Amino acid sequence: MIAADPRTCHTAAVPDWQRQLAEAVRDPLQLLELLGLAPEQLGPEVTAAGLAAAARDFPLRVPGAFIARMRHGDPRDPLLLQVLAHPRELEPAAGFVADPLEEAASRSAPGLLRKYAGRALLIATGACAVHCRYCFRRHYDYGGEQDAGPRWDAALAAVAGDATIEELILSGGDPLSLGNTRLAQLLAQLAGLPQLRRIRIHTRVPVVLPARVDEGLLALFAPLRERLVVVVHANHPAEIDTAAAAALRELARTCTALLNQSVLLAGVNDDAPVLAELSRRLFAAATLPYYLHQLDRVAGAAHFAVTDAAALALHRQLHAALPGYLVPRLVREVAGAPGKLSLTA
User: Is the pTM of this model over 0.85?
Assistant: First the structure.
């Protein structure tokens, strides 16, 4: 993912969330030092050089607000494991490829992907507040698909010319990495497309960087409430601290549906009590569990894979522990399929 350049902002006018984003940690050794850890505590094969090599392959980026939720001195902390560059990412694994969802073949215009009937996805920006190591777009070519007005114009002209598109999904990168001014321009263009019954925003920012949910953002969303769906991304209950829960509740007031999707990750959340507690915390923060994704088989993420048999067993345990509305659907995305594929039936 391509990080936003904080040098383009004037210091006096920078909102708190942008300041936090500019100060995000980018060095794996600095991250470990903040947590009182040394590379060798991650495993006998882990060295400073190996961590640096993994971070060169896919840059590390994590805000301090997310680091603050990690357990000091714990090399197995589930939040740390999601973001720390690790030498295992450089090991080839059969079936794990750069473009597991074959998105290159889905581009119908610069920055516009057409995967499913009635929907289109706009790569609003290549920037993210955090670089999750399992990200299925970690190898995506964002060159030429940055948040430039002319590129948005071309993509939205394609949407306007296709009456079958009734829902537009803003993705990235992360669309909430855009400042309010740029985001307002984009949302104004979308509001002018009467064919769009729904505008869906996929974002991890409210969880990772709760300060992003500021008055300006809420004011932008409020007029679109009746057709706005926001899908956030949390994988572990420790991510839903007091600040994140408050941000989610604020978001819920400005959209028709606030949903969460998680990725099933070995060593992070492949545990039924952990997933059940995540659903409870999400619901308490006005967010409904939506999808539990099997890992997209992207190169560099093989060590996060959970077998289908284990995933199904976990899902059965969730059904036994929770009311149905708190059990996310267990799904996998398959290139070329007409929608997400349920693993449960």
Answer: yes
